[in-house]
Amino acid sequence: MKARRQLIAAFLFVALAGTAHAQKLPPIGNGKRLPGKFVWADLVTYDLPAAAKFYKGLFDWNFTDYGGYVIVDNEERPIAGMFQKPRPADPAAKPRWFGYISVSNVEKAQSAVTKAGGRVLAPPRKFPGRGEQAVFADPEGALFGAVRSSSGDPQDFEADIGDWIWIQMWSRDALKSAQFYRSVAGYEIDENTSSARSNDYVLVSEKYARGTVLQLPPDYKDVRPTWLLFVRVKNVPETCAKVPELGGKVVIAPSPELFQNRVAVITDPTGAAVGLLEWSEDLLKGGH
What we know:
Elements: H1 2-22, E1 38-45, H2 48-59, E2 62-65, E3 70-74, E4 77-84, E5 96-102, H3 106-115, E6 119-127, E7 131-137, E8 143-149, E9 164-171, H4 174-185, E10 188-191, E11 201-205, E12 208-215, E13 226-232, H5 236-245, E14 249-252, E15 263-267, E16 273-277
Parallel strand pairs: 1-4, 5-8, 9-12, 13-16
Antiparallel strand pairs: 1-5, 2-3, 3-4, 6-7, 7-8, 9-13, 10-11, 11-12, 14-15, 15-16
């Protein structure tokens, strides 16, 4: 498991290093830095053409190849990167999305990670057009990145259709996990009291909720602790109906009990998971 995560980080930095010699990456943002905000995402996959075809058909994303590192655009706004690595021998090693947290100092974030029991998978490194970034694993093995963008961060605005709208950590110990990320990114931790659940924690910075740490139920023994990113869609059931046609799978189907059919989890043709969210102001009034 440790070797696989290190391999993912190594492939990512090789892809970015190759890009750095070819051309500069597009900027992540164009405003002030917002430490604690998830500002970027990367997909590591063994079949880049299949993944791109799937996300184009599902979200109408567009793609630009920067020498082995593909930038994903939603309505001409860069929102993510994708890169390919060889298919792993272990069938349990699935492609995955992971997010990057904006930090004021990547080296300090690295120190906080190791002090709190996490691991450094790719140490801080600077890339033209991007800034400085690193890739880590938390104490439960969940992959995440830290970045200090050279262009500032995307500012806080309501996500459009096709944008990342939320990120959620699934943990065996939600409070301990939330405390780990507080030590790394300086979050305030608010316990979620908007539902019947008593073990969800909201990570807050700049007075904005940045993500949630969710306690995995004991019977979810086959689910590994991980971050799950959500894309805003116009209609979750209609989007889910397209997933099998495009070669993906619906893992958690929309249901009236799950925020009135407005949340689902899917996987792309290679097995990378992503959440779907249909946003409205009354969403938080629903239940899990």
